[in-house]
């Protein structure tokens, strides 16, 4: 999660200085004026080229960084809603991202009210050791931020309210099974992650009914710079890789580029709404995933990785890998979403070759 900062305030002050006018508002009012002035610029650009202004929570995370890069490349206005301005500024330096506004929590309201859409990706990573305290924080971190975002959207005047909310959830909603096939119509499971997802989604569903809501149930995202793959690759590079657990469990995955493209499509296309599974159309058994990973890395994939080793690496998040579920992106396929990487072999080659 990330937010707005001193760069824009400096711009406002320099404007007044150059015109020889003293700032007419106290500091608190200048902040409100500052954000809306930037949005006026974005609005003018929007009229010229269908540009959006998007507020993003979780922007410094694995998916969020790539999404911000994509939005920035297409010249959309971006509001990075964060708890740590310094962290966000280190990831999105002004020299590379000159038009991004970074806002800490007191400034979220103004940013959201000046946005056409909000993407909510915030939440504590699950790939850590699950003590009772950590499990509570995993749930609380998602629900707290989602609730805050929804309340700010709902509290916005009609003319300033964002038109779209894209809120992350996870395929953990379905529980686990080696035999069932899950799509967007399938019921929820009854384990801890399913409980987290149900409450997470219920919070997002409180958003104003005039706002188009998309709940993206995200699978295991594959990419070089984060996620489960970044933790699995070192095992294979040390010739210690192989089937994880039994290897028979299903692995519902998606390439990070397809994940970002799906979010982008949801923002732009009004046909995308409701629950959407963020997974590739071809889930695989975990033994097949590991075999393909070994092939791409030029390493053997015959040495099984015991459950306790996987849990030591992935913490409580190992349950996602060890139990698994076969999830199909029925909604995305129905709407004709063009998956760039529908097969895990091509996805791994693009990431690791």
Task: Provide an overview of this structure.
Residues 55-270 form the NAD-dependent epimerase/dehydratase domain. Residues 305-351 form the DUF1731 domain. The protein has helices at residues 6-18, 27-49, 62-73, 85-91, 108-113, 132-154, 192-204, 227-237, 256-268, 286-297, 307-314, 318-323, 330-334, 344-352; strands spanning 53-57, 77-82, 101-104, 117-120, 164-170, 181-182, 212-218, 220-222, 250-251, 253-255, 274-278, 284-285, 326-327. It has 353 residues and is α/β, with parallel strands linked by helices. It has one domain: 3-Layer(aba) Sandwich (Rossmann fold), CATH 3.40.50.720. The strands form 4 sheets. It has a 7-stranded parallel sheet, with helices on both faces. A two-stranded parallel ribbon has the order 6-13. A two-stranded parallel sheet has the order 8-10. The protein is globular, with a radius of gyration of 21 Å. Mean pLDDT is 84; it is low at 1-49.
């Amino acid at each position: 999660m990330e937010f707005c900062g001193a760069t824009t305030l400096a711009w406002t002050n320099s404007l007044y200085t150059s015109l020889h006018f003293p700032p007419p508002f106290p500091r608190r009012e200048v902040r409100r004026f500052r954000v809306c002035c930037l949005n006026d610029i974005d609005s003018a650009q929007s009229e010229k080229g269908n540009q959006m202004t998007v507020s993003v929570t979780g922007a410094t995370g694995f998916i969020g960084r790539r999404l911000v890069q994509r939005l920035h490349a297409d010249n959309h206005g971006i509001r990075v809603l964060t708890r740590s301005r310094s962290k966000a500024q280190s990831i999105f330096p002004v020299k590379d991202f000159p038009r991004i506004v970074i806002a800490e929590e007191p400034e979220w309201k103004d940013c959201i009210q000046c946005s056409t859409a909000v993407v909510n990706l915030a939440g504590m990573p699950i790939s850590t050791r699950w003590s009772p305290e950590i499990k509570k924080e995993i749930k609380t971190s998602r629900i707290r931020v989602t609730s805050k975002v929804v309340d700010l959207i709902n509290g916005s005047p009609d003319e300033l309210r964002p038109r779209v909310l894209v809120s992350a959830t996870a395929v953990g909603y379905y529980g686990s099974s080696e035999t069932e096939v899950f799509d967007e119509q399938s019921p929820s499971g009854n384990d801890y992650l399913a409980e987290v997802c149900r409450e997470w989604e219920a919070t997002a569903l409180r958003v104003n009914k005039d706002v188009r809501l998309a709940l993206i149930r995200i699978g295991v995202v594959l990419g070089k710079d984060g996620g489960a793959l970044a933790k699995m690759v070192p095992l294979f590079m040390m010739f210690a890789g192989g089937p994880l657990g039994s290897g028979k469990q299903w692995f519902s995955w998606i390439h990070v580029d397809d994940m970002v493209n799906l979010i982008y499509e949801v923002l732009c296309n009004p046909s995308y709404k409701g629950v959407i599974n963020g997974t590739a159309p071809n889930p695989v058994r975990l033994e097949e995933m590991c075999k393909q990973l070994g092939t791409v890395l030029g390493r053997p994939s015959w040495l099984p990785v015991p459950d306790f080793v996987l849990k030591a690496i992935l913490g409580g998040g190992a349950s996602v890998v060890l139990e698994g579920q076969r999830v199909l992106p029925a909604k995305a396929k129905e709407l004709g979403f063009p998956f760039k990487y529908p097969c895990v072999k091509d996805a791994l080659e693009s990431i690791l070759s």
